[in-house]
TrEMBL record:
Belongs to the membrane fusion protein (MFP) (TC 8.A.1) family. The gene is yknX. Residues 240-307 form the CusB-like beta-barrel domain. Coiled coil: none annotated. Residues 315-382 form the YknX-like C-terminal permuted SH3-like domain. SUPFAM superfamilies: HlyD-like secretion proteins. InterPro entries: Beta-barrel_RND_2, RND_pump_MFP, YknX-like_C. The keyword Signal applies. Residues 1-21 form the signal peptide. The keyword Zinc does not apply. This is Efflux system component YknX. Keywords: Signal. GO terms for cellular component: efflux pump complex.
Amino acid sequence: MRLLRLFAILPLLMSPHVIRAAEVPPASGSTAPAPAVTIVAAADREIVEQAVVTGTLVPRDEILVAPEIEGYRITELLVEEGAEVEKGQVLARLSLEMIATQEAANVAAIAKAQAAIVQARSQIVQSEAAQIEANLSLERARSLVKTGNATAAVLEQRVSAAQGGEGRLAAAKGGLQLAEADLAAARAQSNEIALRRARTDIKAPDGGIVSRRTARIGAAATSTGEPLFRLIARGEIELEGEVPETWMPRIERGNIVRLEADQGRIVTGKVRRIDPEIDRLTRLGKIRISLDRDPALRIGAFARGRVEVARRDSVAVPLSAVLYGIDGSALVYVVEDGTVEARKVVSGLAADGFMEIREGLKSGEAVVARASSFLRHGDRVRPVQPKAEAAASVTSR
């Protein structure tokens, strides 16, 4: 049956029309179409490279206020947390009961010392008079002994009396010195008590903002443990931030920082200090950022911002348009008249999805928006604009 069918179609296959159709070559214009690629134009652009910094708001300098005298009860608290205080302003007062008792005792000690001085001086006057009289009696006794009108025993009595007078005079002078020393000690104690009285007023060592108040009325003031007040010195708050170690060598003192605050507010500042150490575990470095004065800032709050590392006006292309080789070299695919040129370039700063091209590309040249290793130098392509640009051109028409 199959042989019969084969013999039936064989004459048709041998027909001259079929032979001529098989010999016709394919049409010369039937080549594969060029692939479509999206292109973008290199353009001058300001590139601002920024490092992300995160951290906690802290006081630049914190003042710890503790009592300089201990054991006295707190009787008054004059400031609340959040209050702005000046240098020397009284923050709290301590009890004066013990001070008043010490002052009364000191007044009595001074009066006693002054009375002792008066008494010692009087004794000196009396001792000096007695000494003069004893010396005169001694001289008379010596004269009488020479003339034979007095015995040696009388002379010895006069000598003993004169020596006793000298001793009493010396004792009186010593009593005066002791009384004067007691007076000096009492006056020194008076100064000490006055200093204690002054220290019952607990004052701010410097101006600032009260960040914490642990003092309580009735509690005994002590310099150990928690301070009575914590102050933000001069009201200056800064960010103690952390930055990846790869950015640390590029950050310098004075770099501008922009922090994101509540409700979209931006707080600006500058890098004040760069720590020389990198954390071994987190691989993060620490920097201190001084911030502009803002009453809304709260210490202890988390903050995030960006440190401006570099800023330049240069030719830029999207990051996706740059392809990096194994050796680290960068290239872009420039499209001109539908032909691809693989061109090596020198890249620079990168920010906001764009890459700075420092060498090898001019503003206005078209490059492939998404560089791919599938493209080759000399390939033919069909360039198309990005959808956003195409829509914009349609709208403009």
